[in-house]
Amino acid sequence: MLSLLSVSGNLKAPSYEITLGANGNMISTLKARSSNGEFSAQVDTPSILSASEYRPFWISWANGAVQFGKGDVVGQNRLLNFIDPLPTYRKDVHSVAVASGGGVTAEWEFVQQFNGGHY
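and the corresponding structure tokens:
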């Protein structure tokens, strides 16, 4: 899981959350959370994660559009494209948090720095 946080360290504040390989490594989801509720999108991504190799992904967010895809090039091989219906609630991303769930151990490697618009 990767969270784009509007308030550093506060997972309950307005945020975007991308979950890779949910439901037995079969789907990936993007959620937008605010005090007005939660909006989500999902896509089938069977075997998107691997226990034996690193796999590259990218994320981009700007002007209420959040996109996520596979590979090293931002904008190519897009898996999710979410147009936020309430972008003002999540206007600014101040930090990124990563985690694994369900008792699974994960390794994350970031090859580009957070630059206020994409990884």
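(Above: one complete record from the training split.) The helical segments are 22-25.
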